Amino acid sequence: MEQKIKTIGLLTSGGDAPGMNAAIRAVTRMAAHNDWYVIGIESGYQGLLDKKFIPLNSYNVRGIIQRGGTILLSARCPSFKTQEGLNLAVKNLKEANIDALVVIGGDGTFRGANDLAQLCDIPIVGIPATIDNDIYGTDYTIGYDTCLNTVVEAVDKIRDTASSHNRLFFVEVMGHEAGFVAINSGLACGAEIILVPEQKNQMDKVRSFLAERAKSNKSNLIFVAEGVEGGAMAIADKLKDEFPQVSIRVTVLGHIQRGGSPTSKDRIAASEFGVAAVHALMEGKSGVMVGYENGKIHYEPLKNAVKMHRQVDPDFIKTAESIGTFTPLD
Ligand code: F6P
After folding, report:
1. Cα dihedral sign for 66, 9, 285, 86?
2. What whole-number distance in Å separates Cα of residue 11 and Cα of residue 210?
3. What residues does CATH 3.40.50.450 cover in the chain?
4. Whose C-alpha lies nearest to ligand 1, atom 10?
């Protein structure tokens, strides 16, 4: 396709993720190198409907690579799921002379982009950024590494107090539908049991662990992804009465997992994805998401990224748990 782009729109949407700012910077600078203007759209798709546009340039994205959150702000936008919302978005894009769009976010963001792509003919490219790391078509999403490190740092502290009191802690981490954060941070923290949404009916396993554990009176960590059995609090409430001899505590890490200065891995991934997104537009690509496949930049059709779901490998769950527990011979 002959390249006719002069101005690109750029937005961040859905749950924020550390490294979004690094991606904003990379897209803006790469576009500027190509003599394109960049219009930042504040608060995701809501800002597109409300015409919250701000000019971005190489200069005003300086000093943000190390900052968590997103300078463009983010939001979830229910009206973007309606026909009226989508029509208004197309109209506003036209009026602002935006002739290509880069969206940074997770699966909800890409669903919005995919719906919009059916109605307008401007090229749209997605950049995956979510601490959940659950997007089909990429091995990695921006923010995931920072999130894992945040969890590990916090849980190492919990471990100190857990072992001082021989307590069993249920630690709840984010992930409604995917257990990537739980499984990998659980492994890195030496958790005995890790409960992820991909595996159903795990309560018997937890009960027999607690029954054994009641005899040994050691400190333990059980990681729970928030989407499992109503979360860590609900699970602990059920078990406290059944196992009164076990001293149980619960920590819900919550939104601390979404904040913080991005790790070098996230800054690098965000920068590479940002550059690749602009390259995609220069090459006339549209309706694709930038990602990594085996460490290399890869373009996945957006329609696949929204149709399919990336899930934790069951073998990896076994690996993580197998080294979390000790055997009776120890
Ligand atoms: O960003 C993804 C995610 O953190 C999920 O793991 C979590 O369930 C959800 O967002 C919570 O988001 P919010 O509180 O912004 O609705």
Report:
1. positive
2. 47
3. 7-143+262-307
4. 15
Q: Residue with structure tokens 């690509």?
A: 285
- Sign of dihedral through CA atoms 141, 147, 151, 153? positive
Q: Class assignment of domain 145-259?
A: alpha beta
Cα 135 to chain center, whole Å?
Answer: 8
The alpha carbon of 85 is separated from its chain's Cα centroid by a whole number of angstroms, namely: 25
pLDDT tens across the length of the chain (330 residues): 445 899 999 999 999 999 999 999 999 999 999 999 999 999 999 999 999 999 999 999 999 999 999 999 999 899 999 999 999 999 999 999 999 999 999 999 999 999 999 999 999 999 999 999 999 999 999 999 999 999 999 999 999 999 999 999 999 999 999 999 999 999 999 999 999 999 999 999 999 999 988 777 788 999 999 999 999 999 999 999 999 999 999 999 999 999 999 999 999 999 999 999 999 999 999 999 999 999 999 999 999 999 998 999 888 988 887 887 666 565
In words, the CATH class of domain 7-143+262-307 is: alpha beta
CB atoms within 10 A of CB 139: 14
- Evaluate: CB of 258 within 6 angstroms of ligand 1: yes
Q: Which of 107, 132, 134, 266 is catalytic?
A: 132
* Nearest-CA residue for atom 3 of ligand 1: 15
Q: How far is CA 73 from CA 93, 156, 189, 253, 257, in A?
A: 19, 31, 32, 22, 17
CATH 3.40.50.460 domain residues, the chain: 145-259
